Predict the 3D structure of the following.
Amino acid sequence: MEQTNKSNWPVLRYYDQEHSLKIALPIGGIGTGTVSLGGRGDLRDWEIVNRPAKGFAPTHAFFALRTATEGGQPIAKALEGRIPTELYEGWSGSPVFNAGMPRFQQHSFETTYPFGRVILKDSEMPVDVHVEAFNPLVPGDADASGIPLAVLRFKLVNNTTQEISASVCGVLQNFIGQDGSLGKSVRNRNRFRADSGLQGMVLSSDGVNPKSEQWGTLALTTTAKGPVSFRTSWADLSWGNTLLDFWDDFVADGRLDDRVAPKNNSPIASLAVPVEVPPEGENNISFLLTWHFPNRLSWRAPDRNPQTWSEDLELIGNYYATKYMDAWDVAEKALPRLEQLELLTTKFVTSLYASDLPDKVKEAALFNISTLRTQTCFRTPDGYLFGWEGCQDLFGSCFGSCTHVWNYEQATAYLFGDLAKGMREVEFLHATDSRGLMSFRVNLPLVHGKEFGVAAAD
C-alpha cells in the first residue's frame, strides 16, 4: 500500500466538464514522443512510435477502479468522465472503444504544463479520484527532461466514515508493430515481472521485424509494494464477452485471474493494485507507462506520405535508446529519481507561476514547451536535436530543422542551451558547404547534411 502523497502542483488553468473534451495534454520526454491525457481522463493520441499519430489509441487502454466497504456491494467504474452523448452515435455503435463501461458522472481538468489533473466525481462512488499525470521537465537538463515515461497517479479521496477497500487496474493492449499509420502486430507477448521496486507488465514482440520503426517494448508498472494481480491476456471470446469476462473478474474481488489466448497477436495486459483508503482520508497508487522504440528512420524521402514510406530509408535511431535498453530499463532507472525530478519540475513551474506576468503570458510560455516533447522534435544518437516545422496528423510537416523556423524559436535556447548549441553546430559544421552556403533544411544522416543545397536569406 502506498502512503498518501499530496502533490503541490500549481494550477494555472481550470476547465469544467463542458470545456474539457477537446483537451489532450502530451506526456513524454524531449525526443521520445508522447501519449496524451484527455480532459476526461482517457488516454489518447499514442504518438510514441516514431511518428505523429493523432487519433490513434490501442483498442484497450484504460484504467478502472473497484471499491467496496465492509458488508456493501462492490462498485466499479472506468477512471474516466462520461462520454458525450454524440459520441455514442456511429454506423455500428460508438466509435469510442469500450463505450459500454460505466464511467464517472462528473469530471473537470486543471493544469499547469507539464502537470495535468483530472478530477472525477460520482454520486454512486464512495471516493473522488484525482488522476494526476506528468513527465519531468527540468530546465538545463535535457536528459532528465527526455525520459520516455508517463507518470500516472490515482489519488483516492474517501468521502465516507468507513474504510474502503479499493483496487486500481491498468489495461494496455500490446500494439507493438503498429504506429497509427503502418504495420501490424505479429506474435506479441506479455509477461509479468517484479524487481527493483517495481511490479508490472512487460510488452514485447516475437514476430515484428526488429529493424522496423514499429518494433520495440512497452511496460506498465506500479511502485506499490504490496501484492498485485495481473493478466497476460484476456479471454478469446465472441463479441463483447471478452470485455465482459475481464469486467466480471475484476468487479468480483478486485483481483485478476489470468487467461490464455494463444491466437491473439495483440494480447491485452492488465495489472490490478489493491489499496486501503482510511475513513475521510486519502491514499494513492502510482503507475509508470514507459516505452522504447529505437528505430527512427531518416526524413530524407521527398514523399512524406506515411503510406509510401518504406524501410529502405536509412536508420538514424533515437538518442533515448542509447540511454535505456528497453521499456523496463526506463522505469527501473527513472524510479529512484522520480521524487527529486518531480520536485525540480514543480520548482520550475511554480517560479514562473508566481511571477507577476499576466496569466495568458504564463500559459503561452509554459504550454507551448510541450512542442519539444511531441513528434515535432527528435534527438539522434549523437545527442543533436532536430525538428520538423510542425506536425500533421500522421506525419511531420516540412523536414530539416529549417533555419527560418528554428533560428527564431527561443524556448530551446533559454531552457536547454546545450540542445540549441547543437542545432547551431549542425547548421555551421554539417549543413554549410565550402562556398559558405548553408542549406536551410538539413538532410539526414548528417553525411548528407549539405545536399539540400538551397539557402534562405534569413
Notes: The first strand starts at residue 13 and ends at 15. The chain is about 15% helix and 30% strand. The CA atoms of residues 149 and 290 lie 5 Å apart. The helical segments are 241-253, 327-334, 338-353, 359-367, 403-406, 411-415, 417-430.
